[in-house]
Amino acid sequence: MPDAILPTVTLEQGLHALDLLGVLAFSMSGALLAVRKRFDLFGVLVLGCVTAVGGGAIRDTLTGQTPPLFLRDETYLWVALLGGVLAFAFGERLARFERTLRLFDTVGLGLFAASGALGAITFGLGPLGVAFAGMLSGVGGGVIRDLIANEVPEIMYRHDQLYATAAAAGALTVYLLHGLVTPFQAQLGGAGMVVLLRYLSRRGWARLPVRRLPEDG
């Protein structure tokens, strides 16, 4: 009996650990932006937490899972606060490295999009619903972060750096892998797809078309 239970427990722990890693990554991403904007400690912690749990809260609300997961399991908030504290303490060093900020953001995007996709699959959504829920889970916190920091959300104009599209593709990857591999492997595959597309777009090898209209006058 213990042998039969052990794989399930290990799987749940693995998925939970990936979720928390995404929370930490997104929290540090948002908190580092707050440090760059010269927010005080409270502002840094708020922006870090909003970035970390905002997307998941939107996803849970849309799928009727209320209250959102971060309120049902405060571990998510504690990890988000930890990321904010780390960014505040070492932000002066970390903010010098733009790649660090991008890395945290990409890791968080991939893990959250994949985890949102798994939640949507469990809820019984189809491929489009899974892609949409995973995308919202991945980009929702970042959009709220940019609005609070008085920045135009990148997903609205950075056609040369796939973001929301990468999140949707990662979520769809999870949907396609689900049933063929374990949920843990599906989540890793979806997150890996996001990271790959983000890398290709930053290298200039993948981008979305832009419709340009002639200038007035």
Structure description:
The protein is mostly helical and 217 residues long. The chain has one domain (2-202). The protein has eight helices and no strands. The chain has helices at residues 2-36, 41-62, 69-72, 75-94, 98-123, 127-148, 164-177, 183-202. Helix 2 (41-62) packs antiparallel against helix 6 and helix 5 runs antiparallel to helix 6 (127-148). It is globular. It starts with a helix and ends in a 15-residue tail after the last helix. Mean pLDDT is 82; it is low at 1-9.
Output the helix-strand order: HHHHHHHH
Strand content: under 5%
Q: Let me know the average pLDDT.
A: 82
**How many helices does DSSP assign?**
8
The tally of domains stands at 1
Quaternary structure classification: single chain
User: Biggest sheet, open or closed, and with what strands and sense?
Assistant: none
End-to-end Cα distance = 77 Å
In helices, the fraction of residues equals over 70%
Shape: globular
Regions with pLDDT < 50 over 5+ consecutive residues?
Answer: 1-9
Secondary-structure-derived class: mainly alpha
The Cα radius of gyration reads: 18 Å
| Number of β-strand runs | 0
Subcellular location: Cell membrane
Domain Glycine transporter: 17-90, 103-178
InterPro entries: Gly_transporter
Keywords: Cell membrane, Membrane, Transmembrane, Transmembrane helix
